[in-house]
Structures are given as C-alpha cells and as structure tokens.
Amino acid sequence: MSEPQAEPVLERDPGMPSSTWRMRSDAWEYLRFAVKRLALGDRSEATEALAADSEIHRSLRALETVEMYWAGFGQRYVTTIGEMLAAGEYQAALDRIGRVVNRLRAIGTSEEATGEFDPDSDDEFAGDNDPRPRFEVLIVDETTPADRDTMRAESLRMRSAADAFVYEYVIVPSADDAVAAVLTNPNILACVVRPGFSERTKQTLSRDLRETIELAHAQTAGPQTTARNQLASVQRVLGLADTLAALRPELDLYLMAGAHIEDLAGAMTKRFRRVFRREDHLELHLSLLRRVSHLYDTPFFSAIQDHARRPVGVFHALPVARGGSVMSSKWIRDLADFYGLNLLLAETSATSGGLDSLLAPVRTLKKAQELAARAYGAKHTFFVTNGTSTANKVVHQALVAPNDVVLVDRNCHKSHHHSMMLTGGRPAYLDAYPLNDFAFYGAVPIDRIKQLLLDYRAAGRLDEVRMVTLTNTTFDGIVYDPYRVMSECLAIKPDLVFLWDEAWFAFGAFHPVTRRRTAMASAKLLEQQLGSAAHERAYREQQELLFAEDGTPAADEVWLRERLIPSPEARVRVYATQSTHKTLTALRQGSMIHVWDQDWVRDAQDPFHEAYMTHTSTSPNYQILSSLDIGRRQVELEGFELVQRQLDLATSLSQAIARHTLLRRTFRVLTAHDLIPEQYRGTGRAMPLRDGLSNMWEAWATDEFVVDPSRITIEISRTGVDGDTFKHEHLMDRYGIQVNKTSRNTVLFMTNIGTSRSSVAYLIEVLVKLAERFEEEQAQRDTEQPLPAEIPMPPLPDFSSFAPRYATDEKLPDGDLRAAFFRGQRRGNIEYVLGDDLRARVDAGEKPISAGFVTPYPPGFPVLVPGQVVSPEVLAFMKVLDTREIHGYDPLRGYRIIKES
C-alpha cells in the first residue's frame, strides 16, 4: 500500500448552510487521509493517534448530522464507520470511506451522494454507474429505520429501464429538518409531505442554521386562508408547504395522506401539485418523473437538434447553412474544424419545421419563452439576441411617449440614455451617492427618488412622470430593495411603471436570499400585499397622517420620514431586462425581458410588440436562442446549487485575502462599510454572508442597500499602480486572469456559476505572487528619489443641468435630450473645443452645451449627455481620468459643443 499523501486542507464553516457542500466533501477527504494513516501504522500507535486526532471525531459528528439531508450514505453509514474505528477495524473503515470519496470525485462538481440503498444487498452503492440524470426527493415524516428501508426498497423496485431519470429519497422527521434539507441539498427537486412529521428537529445544528430555519418559517408565517374547522395538523402542513415553496419555488410539492383525502384535496390545491393516498406509490413515482421531464424539456433546443439531423435541401439566403459554403471550400474548412460541424448544420433562416419565428412565435420558441417565464417568476418573458442594450430600448419605446418624464439613474448604462433620445422621453436624472475614494458611484437612495416625485407633484406636473428606471445590481454590486422602492413610489403616484436593469443579476432568481431583491419576486410580493386586508388597513391609517382633513398633503418631511404604503388600487407594472449571458449559461448577447404588468393586455401588449418588432432582427441567431432555452433548463434543475456555490466561493476569496498576512498588507477587500453609507445599512454588518446565511438573510430583508457577495472589489493603492495597469499588465498579460472592471484604485473580481475552487485557488496564488513582486520593488526603490506626486482624484461629478433651451422649467431637472441630440448631429451646429480652452470659457462664466454623449470606460456611463451644461466638475474629472477608452470624445479635437447661434 502506498504512503499516505500530504494532509488535505480541511475548510469547514458548518455555520454557513451555503458551504455545507464543501464542508461535507472536505470532511470525507480528511477522514480518508487520517484513517489511511491509521491503517498503515502500528496498531497500538494507531489507537493512540485516533484518540489524539480530534479532527476525526469532529468530522464524524459533522457528517452524522449532514448526511441526513442527502440521499445515499445516510447517518447509519457514518455511525458504522465510527464503530469500526472504535473497534480498531481501520482497514474496513478505510474501505467504506474510500468508496464514498471515490463516488464524490467521480461525480465531479456536483459533490452529492448518489448511492442507492438495497436492504437485500451488502452493496450500498448498487447501481452507481447508472448514467441517467439523478435527482433527490425529500420525504417529510416521522419514520422508523425499517420504514425508511421499505420506502427506499419500494422506489428501487419501481425503477424501470425506460425511465429517463432516476431518483432517491431523503427522509427527514421534522419541519425544521425539511427546511435544513432544502437549504443544504440542492439536488432535491421534489418534496412529499406526510402529515405525521414533527415540528422541531432533534439534530445538533449550528446556530446559524437554526436561525436561518427560524427566518424561513417566519417569512411565510401569518393567517392561513383555510376554513375555521380545519385541523391544526392541516395548518402545519400548509405552513411547511408555504415555507418550502418560498425557499425553492422550483420544488414540486406533493401531499401523501391517509383518511379524508377527498376533503384535503380542495384545500391543498394551491400548495401541492397532487394529493396521494399512502398506497399510491406508482402514481407518485410517475408524477415525480413526469414533473422533472417538464423541467428538462427544451423545446427550441430540441427543435434545433432535430433540424441539424434532418437531410434537407437549402434554397434560401444562407450559404453557410448545412455547411454548404464551408465544406466545399478549399480555403475555409478550418471554420468547421474549429467550431464543429453541428454549428453549421444548425444554421438556418427557416421558420418552419418546428423552428418557429422570434418575431411571431407560435410553437417551440413560444413554449421556450413560457418556460423561461416560469423559471424566472415572470408573467411573460421575451428572448433578445442582441444584448440588454436592445432590451432596454424595447421596453422604453414600448412604454414611453415623447415628453413623458422618466426618472432615471444618471450613471445607468448608456442604452437608457440612448432610449431617451429615441423615444423623445424627457429624462430627469437621479444622482447616486458617490464613492469618491474609489472613483465610482453607488446607488440612488429612496429619499432622493421620493423627493423628486414630491417636487413634480408640487409643481403640478406629476401626471407627466411615466417611469422610474434603476440598475439592480449596479456594476459594482450595489443591490436595491425593489419592493420598497416600488411601494413608496406608488404611494406618491399609483400608476408608475418601473424598469429594472438587471443585466448583472440574472442569477438572483435562484437563491432564496437573493431572489427577494429581484424585480419579478418583488412585483409578485407587491401584488399579493396590495390585495390583503391588512395592507388596506395600514394604508387607511397612514393616509390620516399624510393628508389633512381638507385633502392637503403634509409637509415633504413627513412623506420622506414615513415608510410609505401604496394605495390598494395601485397598479403593479414592472419590467426587468436581463443579460442572461453575463451571469448564467447563454451565448454572448443572449438576454431576456421579463414582464409583470397588471395592465399588460389593456395598455402594453400591442405597443410592446411594435417596439419588439422595431429592434429585433428578422434574422435572429438561432444558436443564441437555443442557448437561452437550455440555460433555462440548467437553472431550474441546478440553479440553486450553482448560485449557492458561487456565493460561497466569493466569500472564500474575500476571507483568504483578509486572513493572508502578505495579501492584507497589499490589498484590501471593500465591504459594505466601504460601499454603502451607514444610514443605508440597518444591520451594520460589513460582509453579512461571511458571518452566516442568517446574517445575510437579515441584511437583505432590512437594509436599503446591500452588496452582492458574488462581487469582490479589491482596493490596490498600496501596489503603487493604477487599476488599468494592474488589470492589463499584471493580471491579464502576465497570468491570463481576466477581469471586467477597474477604477483608478480598485479591481473588481466577479465569481459566476462557472467559477471553481481551483480557479479561486489560482487567483489567490497569483495575488500572492504579485504582492511579493510589489513589496520587492518597493524594497529596492531608491529612497532618495522621491515618488512622483499622485494627482488627487476630484469628486465624481453629479449631473449639472440641461441648458435652458432644452430644460422644461427652472425648478425641475428634466430636459429634451432628443432635440439636443439631433441638433448636435449637424456639423454646422457644433464646434470642437479642447479641454483647456473649454475650461477657460467655463471659468469666464460661459455655460457650454454638450452636443453628444461622452462616456469614459470606466466608469462606463455618460458624464455628459446632449443638451447638458458642461460644468467645472465634469472637466476636472475628465482632466485627470487615465482610462484608455472614452466614447464621444476626441483628444485631438476636444469636446463637441453646440454653438450659441
């Protein structure tokens, strides 16, 4: 037998449900290492080593708890290993542990146990090589070990070679254990509730997991909509179902009862897909497989595959289709060699044979979009094949008419500014709070949005305000509370429309904590709240505070101080644009528009389709569309697991930098304390997820702004180089590490669902090497040679104002961007002015007007828009900006300025 390998690093944070997958895998790996050492050693020495190695016992205790929540090995398996070790049967224990570790490694990244229990076999892992996709089914009921063996045996007997999938049971006795299971085991796709379960767990759980379970229960606590004469046990069942559905909406819930099943069926319809009698094992089995087949269905991707396999004659406008112009060529066959023949076989401009038309879908694309709406919690979803820039223009054009006022975050993506130009809407720019120390912006506080709405009301122009447009999350990871923003805005103007640019937040819908801050989840909750009797009572009470008896509104200070409650008559009209390709699986430019609009049919459907026709190509890329379809399948079946791991790995990265002696001397991880002003942080925690999922849950439930934990912003001032140099010369050129955004003194690292533990480890290794390099360079610097003086970064400029000729009035900020844009497109109306000359004009009292958009990257938003007065603050900011890319500015000719005449 070979010598034991080097001791693995045991990373364990059992307080975090999101890291249980890692703790579980590491614990099994450590046991294998430690017990292998015992098996190879002298028996007496091994006994002493076992007694001294407390980590073995901690690992066994942790696995005895956590294995309840996974199918396969089970607690008895772990207990047996402990008994073998106590009896000195080290080799037998090692064999059992080795089988588990080999299974986990063979499964790859999924990290879950997939063993099968067979009470009539000595092999607990029979059927392990079955290649079919697997999932797990949670059974909630008080059972004996014999009952559990019987249930598992019955499920095996019903398994057929014709089944497309296989599943295994996870059996827990209590409601608490059911919540723990769906929080820790992402492989659970269905849950069968049997009324015999108890309320509280007997497991020894961490404080964080216990608190998270309580938060999950409390989230759905409240009066049930059941008849008075229903039993308390029915209420318990309904409460558990509501909790599980809120945590994991993709879960399929079933009720298995005994007596009075007919009476229960009507009361349970909204919570459970079906109600079964206990003996209906076959019907349950078929239902489980059928439901997963619905999640697995990819109608458009399957149609593309079918088209690629069919022999067809091509007599349309694509020479590349079926590889016709490629495979017969002497010179470009390497295109097929590189991308593969399937890419060419799937290329077509046909909209028949099951492929459908994106502009007027009636078959496979229509169904694919309906499935996406289900997955993302929308009422309607539309695929977009040329990015979220186009998605934003579609929504704006559908909902905004000329001279409608749109309240829009000034540092939003440039597509929103361009949309204002295209639609003729009048932007009223909202200024986000600045983070001057790091040269980027945060988000727009709710009191600023409310104050601007109140200003329009005071001016008698509130009827002109049509839409509020905000970015959630911002590029740097600042996350709004959409529910609060929409509630309070609707309390001032109950017919507002909201557009949430969620380009970087597509993954948010697939984690129980992040989901609550997505636009669609917030819209659903808002609609539910508006229809409740409790909401109407609260609204009536607050109206007495906000209005005098004669109907006069209270002072603005009262409206700003109060957490405003919208009228029950308010309309929920919410749109979200999503860069699916940025954070989930999709080809480049694959995006979606999600809609939750109560007035869709009456007011929005026809204009939306016209706008969609305007901006959507008549020759959309079918590969992008099929990637959106199959990417939807992925997030419904494993999105929770992937997002859970993404957040955990990002937290591991930030912890590694904070704990490493060299790294923390060179780099600093920016936390919520750096990125969010104190008045917007209710919980006050710097990095909530680092302290446990329950702390993240509380922060995301209460704070006005939170930080997306998947994004790690590193402050690099102590390296002596700027962000752009650090990105290109050190990370990319030297080590091949790609990052998306820098500022003058920060670098943003983003994890995603494709991030692995190995890639995080590689990044940490690179950062250590760079830190050593920077310290060495500083140590060898000639101390008598002074360092070059650093040019201080001026404050980030707020939006100045529109010039009087483009402004509506002096008191409000909206302006006619469209008129200024088209005036600036005519050469005779503009002049080019160099920066120093323009500054001299401004200092002399002139107010030059920008003729176009000026957008530096970073920060990636227009610092000047058409019709805007060029301010000293903008020029000061631009003068010291050291970015390589500035759209709309020519350094040789200067700024485009509208002539006065």
TrEMBL record:
One of its Pfam families is: OKR_DC_1
Q: Does the keyword NADP apply?
A: no
Query: Which prosthetic group or cofactor does it need?
Result: pyridoxal 5'-phosphate
Transmembrane residues, as ranges? none
Swiss-Prot/TrEMBL keywords:
Aminotransferase, Transferase
Q: Name one GO molecular function term.
A: transaminase activity
Q: Where is the Orn/Lys/Arg decarboxylases family 1 pyridoxal-P attachment site domain?
A: 298-522, 573-757
Please give the InterPro entries that the UniProt record associates with this protein.
Answer: LL-DAP_aminotransferase, Orn/Lys/Arg_deCO2ase_major_dom, PyrdxlP-dep_Trfase, PyrdxlP-dep_Trfase_major
Q: Under which name does UniProt file this protein?
A: Arginine decarboxylase
Q: Does the keyword Transferase apply?
A: yes
